[in-house]
Amino acid sequence: MCTLERRGDVFILTITGGDEHRLNPELIDSIRVALARAKSESTRSTALITTAQGKFFSNGYDLSWALSDPDPARLRSKTMSKKLRLLVEELISLPMPTIAAVTGHASAAGFILALSHDYLLMRKDRGYLYMSELDINYDIPRWFVQVVKNKIGSPKIWRSVVLTAAKITAAVGVDWGIVDSAHGSAEETVDAAVKLGMDLVRRKWDGKVYAANRRAVLADVLAVLGSDETVGDSGEDDASQSKVVSRL
Length: 248
Ligand SMILES: CCCCCCCCCCCCC/C=C/C(=O)SCCNC(=O)CCNC(=O)[C@H](O)C(C)(C)COP(=O)(O)OP(=O)(O)OC[C@H]1O[C@@H](n2cnc3c(N)ncnc32)[C@H](O)[C@@H]1OP(=O)(O)O
Hints:
Helices cover 46% and strands 17% of the residues. The protein is of the alpha/beta class. A six-stranded mixed sheet has the order 1-2-3-5-7-10, with helices on both faces. It has a four-stranded mixed sheet with strand order 4-6-8-9.
């Protein structure tokens, strides 16, 4: 699950445990509760850092949980997708700057979670940013692509990220304009994130204005997030399931 601590004027949301931090409803809700608490305690001088314990930031959706869905209507995958979209919208609407301190692998939905922060700092000694859908035979959701396009400036990099499923190290991420800065270890990454957060809170921006302006910058993502993208008809065979679930 996750914890929320306050270090001076910076909130640190940590996804805890040594597992893959797969994004299922339980973990997503735990993160959302922490965000709501940070929001309730926010002032003109606060910032949020999201990080994780272990070798994963988040290895993406909890596919085994979703695939074990007894409901032919695939309610589990719809629930997982809807909750992640709510979480991303809440991050985009948070009245304070947000920083992802990526201290481990961030795959697919986990990569999207990291990208949904204003800043992305990453350890350079290990960890990949990895949009893995092509490698695991799933169509990428349109809203994932919208996040990639909003956050990454070059169509050639979109192609590398989505159409080659590149395993992107921090150094390459800096090169490609995805990672703001690369650091020697998980601890150094979090320390750098705290320093960045403290620098940002010194500007004493009005959180409501910050959130409104971020929503304007990410209006294209919000527009796609909100559209009711549901899974297609049930009962399709495995081969076509990726088509079925591609609109999650
Ligand atoms: C059918 C109806 C129901 C539908 C059900 C589905 C519902 C959901 C629909 C999906 C919709 C599409 C959208 C999908 C979203 C998702 O999130 S789906 C899930 C996505 N997740 C994944 O695909 C998992 C991907 N992860 C991995 O493949 C691996 O975990 C990893 C990221 C590649 C890491 O590998 P791992 O072995 O786990 O870890 P490590 O041992 O740390 O690393 C492997 C080797 O790499 C070396 N390494 C690590 N970092 C670096 C670095 N920065 N630089 C260089 N090398 C590095 C590391 O040392 C290891 O090397 P070796 O020791 O030599 O192996």
